[in-house]
Every structure is written in structure tokens, then in C-alpha cells.
Design brief:
It is a single chain. Helix content is 20%, strand content 39%. The strands form 3 sheets. Strands 1, 2, 3, 4, 5, 6, 7, 8 and 9 form a 9-stranded antiparallel sheet that branches. A 5-stranded mixed β-barrel has the order 10-11-12-14-13. By secondary structure, it is of the alpha+beta class. A hairpin with a 2-residue loop joins β6 and β7.
Length: 394
């Protein structure tokens, strides 16, 4: 890993250049070119009578080949004597070269180790050679706030002054003097390859918005490196009007990765998919299929004139508009001894359709009704049709 250290008077800064793909020879060559670009000092002749400052630049590189991983890095050193009255043109040229290096980091996607020089109300000030860039607080890794949840963001920023952070350059515009860093993007490059759809993580709730909650993922090392979104529709199988009724900042939760957009650096999470889908509940759990009933929990009755539960008529009409569903009717009903919910709830049977017949279960209050569908759809098709219908029915 090339490391550059420069000292000019009392100003000292370091930079670390990481190769995200150590197995790629082309990346290694690009890294070497970038190293050469960023490590060249300016040599200026010193008048014999003038005081001077010393600029020391050293460069070292370690082979990424596993066979030479433990070999001593090659080192080179150069020392130049600088006049203490460097001209403005020399300063301009140096800054221009550093802006060129910043753009090279930006376009290459390499990770840079920048020293935190200070902070302001919106973020951290990070050294990049002769330049100072900006790392907005929202671009910090969640590991800092999760490590010290009792601290404010400005207390965390104060504790980071003097430390080296792994960051990516996400904007470098010399004309507008904008040099922006992101620690989140650097962590995405490092940790996202290790996660996959279906993985289950322990997490901690960060911010909660109207549309969902952001959850920081805890990795095996105990730190929270990446953040994903639990959309409001993935919080619970029940209807959620306000995410804040269920989740608050700081809650510890378990989440499942259901989608990864590697191009946009986004992770979609679900809490409800770690619970049993009530639409796939076994019908036997509510109405015994052998006709028997537990007198302490349920009584059953058969009738050809059962009044549908409130709201079922509208659902029946919409179901009949779906392709592959030919008939919908109530076959029997029961009454539970306790009220589970006053809201209308629907379940699908786990059993596959038999002789073009499929069973649904509706419940509201104590009343439970069994519904028979005549359909050519399979179980997944019926579930999708039912979900479309419920989106259309108020």
C-alpha cells in the first residue's frame, strides 16, 4: 500500500492510496502512475543567504502478490530545499497539480487516507496534499455514531480531529474549488462485496422517515459499516400508518437483505420477512378441516346464506375481475371466543389448489369465514391477484 508523507515547516500531512482490486495488474499500474503524479516535489534553488525550509517526500509500495506479501517494501527518498518566500506562481502550480491528483482519485475510485484537520457546522475538513476538502456529516460511516451513541455529531467530529479516515473523492472541481469526500462510499467499496440477498443482520435503527427507516448493519467485527433502508411496506405484515409507531432511533432490530443495487450503492432491507407471512397461514390453525372444533376457541356452522363480513363484497367483485378467477363464494363460518382484531384480515391456505378450487380465510372481530375460489391460478398467482385487489379496494 503506497504511503506518502510530506513535511513543510510545521505542516504535516499523510495520504494512503488503496487499490480496490489488488488482483488486477492494470489497477496496480494505474496506482503506480497516480503515485508518481502525487509524490513529485517542487525543486527550487535556494539563494545562499536565504533561510530555508526542508521538504521531505518518501514513497513506499508493497506488492499485492500473495507470494511477496511479507517482503520489505521498496523505498525511495528525495530531499529538496525550498525558499521561504515561494512565489505565488509556484504555489499556483502546486495547487493545480494537487487538483489534478484529486480528479484522478475521483475518476479512478481509489480510496484515500485523509487526515482530519478540523470541522465546522456541516462536516469535517480533510487534508488532501496542499488542499483541504470537505466531508459532510451525512457522508460519515455509521460506525462512529453507533460506537458512541451518546455523543452529538459535533462531539464525534471533535474526537476525529487528527485521525486518518478512509475516504473517496466524490467531487473535485478546481474552478469552483469544491473538493468533497465520502467515507460511506469508501466503506461501500470495502464491505459491500461481502453481503448478499438473503443475508440476515443485526442492526440499529438510525433515522426514521415517513417512507421508512434507515438501519445500520452490524458486521462480524462488531462495527456498523453499511446502512440499508427498511421501506414502510417492509416493516410489518400489519398496515403501518406511521413508521414511528413501531421503530425509533436506536432500536436494535434483525433485518433481512432483500435487494442490493450495487450501481447506486443501496441496500433494501425487510423486518417483516423474518416473520411468518399471515397470508400463508395454514387454514387448520383457525378452522379445523376435519369439521371438528375446539369448544373453547371456535364454533362452526354451515349455511348457504352467510352474510359476508364488511368489506368482503367489494373484494369479491374485484377478485372476479382478475384473469383466472371464475367464482368466489363463502363455504362456512365460525366464531372465535376471543377477538383477535376488529380489522378485516385475509389468509391464503398453504395447500395447493385442488380441482381448480382454492381456499381463503377472512376474519374480523370474532367472526371467521371460509371462502372458496374457483380458479386456474397457482398459489403464487392467487397471492399476487389478492394483493392487487387489496391495493384497489379502499
Amino acid at each position: 500500500m503506497p504511503v506518502f508523507t510530506a513535511t513543510l515547516g510545521s505542516v504535516c500531512f499523510h495520504s494512503h492510496l488503496f487499490n480496490p482490486d489488488v488482483s488486477s495488474l492494470s489497477c496496480f499500474l494505474n496506482q503506480t502512475k497516480l503515485s508518481n503524479l502525487c509524490s513529485k516535489p517542487s525543486f527550487i534553488k535556494r539563494p545562499s543567504s536565504s533561510p530555508f525550509y526542508t521538504l521531505k517526500v518518501s514513497a513506499s509500495s508493497a506488492s499485492t502478490n500473495s507470494q511477496t506479501e511479507n517482503s520489505e517494501p521498496a523505498e525511495a527518498a528525495a530531499t529538496a530545499l525550498l525558499d521561504n518566500s515561494v512565489s505565488s506562481e509556484d504555489i499556483r502550480q502546486r495547487r493545480s497539480a494537487d487538483w489534478k491528483a484529486a480528479r484522478a482519485y475521483w475518476h479512478s475510485g481509489f480510496i484515500y487516507g485523509g487526515r482530519v484537520e478540523g470541522f465546522n457546522g456541516g462536516g469535517l475538513l480533510v487534508r488532501f496534499y496542499s488542499l483541504v476538502g470537505f466531508l459532510p456529516f451525512p457522508q460519515l460511516s455509521p460506525s462512529h455514531s453507533c460506537k458512541e451513541p451518546g455523543k452529538t455529531i459535533h462531539q464525534i467530529a471533535k474526537s476525529l480531529v487528527g485521525s486518518i479516515l478512509s475516504v473517496k473523492v466524490i467531487q473535485a472541481e478546481e474552478e469552483s474549488r469544491k473538493l468533497i469526500f465520502s467515507e460511506k462510499e469508501a466503506f461501500w467499496t470495502k464491505f459491500s462485496p461481502s453481503i448478499n440477498v438473503g443475508d440476515i443482520f443485526s442492526g440499529r435503527v438510525g433515522s426514521v422517515e415517513d417512507y421508512g427507516a434507515f438501519v445500520h448493519l452490524r458486521f462480524p467485527d462488531g462495527h456498523y459499516h453499511l446502512t440499508g433502508l427498511v421501506h414502510i411496506s417492509e416493516v410489518s405484515w400489519d398496515l403501518v400508518q406511521d413508521v414511528r409507531d413501531i421503530l425509533i432511533e436506536g432500536d436494535d432490530v434483525r433485518v433481512k437483505v432483500i435487494n442490493i443495487d450495487r450501481g447506486k450503492s443501496r441496500i433494501t432491507l425487510s423486518i417483516k420477512q423474518l416473520e411468518e407471512d399471515p397470508l400463508l397461514e395454514t387454514l387448520d390453525k383457525v378452522i379445523p378441516q376435519d369439521g371438528s372444533a375446539n369448544s373453547d376457541s371456535l364454533t362452526t356452522s354451515n349455511s348457504g346464506t352467510i352474510e359476508p363480513l364488511p368489506g368482503l363484497d367489494a373484494i369479491f367483485k374485484e377478485l372476479l375481475q382478475e384473469d383466472g378467477i371464475y367464482d368466489v363464494r363463502i363455504s362456512r363460518q365460525g366464531f372465535e371466543k376471543r377477538v383477535v382484531s376488529q380489522d378485516l384480515q385475509l389468509w391464503l391456505s398453504n395447500a395447493p389448489p385442488s380441482d381448480v378450487m382454492f381456499t381463503l380465510l377472512a376474519r374480523a372481530g370474532r367472526q371467521v369465514q371460509e371462502i372458496q375460489l374457483t380458479t386456474s391460478l397457482d398459489q403464487e398467482g392467487i397471492k399476487n391477484a389478492l394483493q392487487r385487489v387489496l391495493e384497489r379496494v379502499p
